[in-house]
Amino acid sequence: MGCKNTIFLILVATLITKEALATQHVVGGSQGWDQSTDFDSWTSGQTFKVGDQLVFKYSSLHSVVELSNESTYKKCDISTPINTLSTGKDVVKLDKPGTRYFTCGTLGHCGQGMKVKITVVKGNGSSSPVSSLSPSSSPSTSSPTSTNAASTSQCFASLLLFVTLSFATMIYFF
């Protein structure tokens, strides 16, 4: 019975650690999901990995529409969206490799450049913590807040894994 508990706890710890190490990318950096953001520049400084999350922060003037393919993205055709979000702080999990397309659902905003193409790659570990870069920042630097948050997250995940494994070992031997 102790061996089954140990395996279960290790599995739970692994899943929790993987989730804690995922990077949250605030779309558009400090400017957020806004017409004034240069999304091409913002994405060029990012690495999006499976398990990461996109966070769209925006005012009530905007929304987030996920499109199915590059053709609808280029044409700004929002007539058949995959998903539409409108809370002002939406989180989208990047759950598989590939390309995803997002635009604003407000009339005219897509045509004015309020759209972003995200290429998700396979990868182990966390993404580089550059999620809060503004479009004018260089990709080789990151803000102290972003770096500290990533370090804290990794420290917490390591501590959680250690405690879980210690608990599993105690159950197994006692």
TrEMBL record:
Keyword Transmembrane helix in record: yes
Segments for region (Disordered): 127-146
Residue intervals passing through the bilayer: 156-173
Domain of life of the organism encoding this protein: Eukaryota
Location of the Phytocyanin domain: 23-122
InterPro entries hit by this protein: Cupredoxin, Phytocyanin-like, Phytocyanin_dom
Signal peptide: 1-22
Keywords: Copper, Electron transport, Glycoprotein, Membrane, Metal-binding, Signal, Transmembrane, Transmembrane helix, Transport
One GO CC term on file: plasma membrane
SUPFAM superfamilies noted in UniProt: Cupredoxins (SSF49503)
A GO molecular-function descriptor: metal ion binding
The protein's name: Mavicyanin
Name of the gene: LOC101503344
